[in-house]
Every structure is written in C-alpha cells, then in structure tokens.
DNA sequence: AACGACACCTGGAGGC
DNA sequence: TGCCTCCAGGTGTCGT
C-alpha cells in the first residue's frame, strides 16, 4: 500500500514518538514471519538497551538508527502500520509484533495481510539495503540527464520501470499512474522511446506528485494510517488512479483501466496515446 | 542478465 | 443473507 509519501509520513510520525526512547528487549510476536522468523528472544536480545537516535526513510523502508550501531528497519508492504501505545492497551486483532520500551510504552506493528517485514541490520547490511535501491526521487544527483540515461537503458514499458525500485526508489502503483497521466505518457510506452524532453518532464512530474502527496500526509485508500493513526488526504486529488470510467480532467474522455505487469493501471486513452 | 508469472495473506466489495 | 470471485499503496523467488 504505502509508497514514498506514506512511508515518509509513517516514518516521521513514528520517529516523533520514539526518538530518544529505549527498547527494553521484550518482543511479543503473533506472526513470526514479520521479523524474518528470527526468534523473539534473539531479536529482543539485540534490541535490549538500544535507544532510537532518529528517523529516516530509504525507498519504502522506515529506518530507525539505534545507539548500539544497529538499525531498526521496517517495510509496511501493503497494509502495515505502526502504533505507539501504553503497554496495558489492548492488542489489535491484526497486531503482528510488539516491542517494549523502557518508558512503559510499546511499539506495535499492525498488518492485516502479514506482508510487512521488520529487521535489525548491521552497518554492512544497511549498506546493502541502500545499494539495492536506485536514487531517491528528490536526490539532486538524479538529474534529467541521468534519468534519461536510465530510461534509455531498457526497452521495458515505462510503467514497469517506474515501479522498479532499483531504477528509482519509492514510486508505487498510484504515483506511477499519476505521474504518467500528468505528462500524457502511455503506461505501455517503452522506456527507451521517451525523448530527453519527455524524460525531463516525467522526472519533474514525479517530484511534483510526490511532493504534493507528502504535503497531504499521503493517500489512504483503506488501511493506511500514520503512526498516530491518522489518514492521508491525497486520495482526494487523484487524477487517474482509481478513476476508471470517470472523465479525464483535461479532455473529458473516460479514464481506462488496463493491467500492466500484473498491476491495475489507469490512464486517459485520449491524452496518453498508445505507443505504435 | 532480464523479464514475466506467481507466491505470499486477509478481508472488503460486488454479483448472483 | 450467503456464497463466490475479484481486487488491493509491494516485492521475493522461480522458471524461461
């Protein structure tokens, strides 16, 4: 579910609640795969006494550096979310793991579909995580020239490339559709057929779409909540995603839905001309 | 090496 | 009301 803006918001709100807090080492596990099948006591042993020193986001990972040199990382996948609650608060039915803090609170991970993952990484493992991902959309080193070169390097369709985290990090199904709609590029257009001009426009559109979503606290379709439990509002601004059959805001043509790379894909068949 | 298909899960929505 | 099928903010793995 969550893409860059939602993960950014989730990380920010989680960081705001637990930066400076210390894990006491207790870990209550209801679904073991959430922590990669590492036994709860092993995970807790590594976590005990570690203080959260800040928060970051890398791609769609929430990254919490710890005072012991390790890093607590979490991927929300489709339905994951965090909540920070007093220890005596009742567990949520969809809660998968709870981590105790020394101040009497717990960091709880709630995840309907059980796809989310939480790991404790050493510095080399964190470096690997970083290396496995492409540039952040807002990284100044991602320039129109490097982006165009990335697109030129593959004949895969552009929608698929936008979703490839090793090419550019953080874009998911919603913001891929929204970005392509903005620049009137058909989702099936081969990446290496975009002109330098179009590639430049697309990069700007990606940044604009993500920036607006971040400002609105992300998008909530059904499950997404930040770590305070709040929904985002960006879903009210969608121009293509989820608007199947509704009129295009530019030309009035009904938005169409097709499948690209096994993902529902929304576009305006008039504005976004099919590749030939 | 790169790409597509499928697996992993639950539950809400819509059709009959 | 109940059952059944389809669908969902993602990505790791496997076969071609």
Multimeric state: single chain
List SSEs in N-to-C order.
HEHEEEEEEEHHHHHEE
The CATH architecture term of the largest domain is: Alpha-Beta Barrel
The largest sheet is: 4 strands, antiparallel
Q: Which parts are unreliable, with pLDDT below 50 for 5 consecutive residues or more?
A: none
What is the total tally of β strands? 10
CATH topology of the largest domain: N-terminal domain of MutM-like DNA repair proteins
The CATH class designation of the largest domain is Alpha Beta
Structural class: alpha+beta
Structural domain count = 2
Overall morphology: elongated
Question: Treating each run of at least 4 consecutive H or I residues as one helix, how many helices?
Answer: 7
CATH superfamily of the largest domain: MutM-like, N-terminal
Computed CA radius of gyration, to the nearest angstrom: 20 Å
Question: How many angstroms separate the termini?
Answer: 32 Å
Overview of the structural elements:
The protein is of the alpha+beta class and 276 residues long. It has 2 domains: 128 residues, MutM-like, N-terminal (N-terminal domain of MutM-like DNA repair proteins, Alpha-Beta Barrel); 124 residues, Helicase, Ruva Protein, domain 3, CATH 1.10.8. 28% of the residues lie in helices and 20% in strands. The chain contains 7 helices and 10 strands. The strands form 3 sheets. A 4-stranded antiparallel beta sheet has the order 1-6-7-5. The chain binds a DNA duplex (16 and 16 nucleotides) through helix 1 and helix 6.
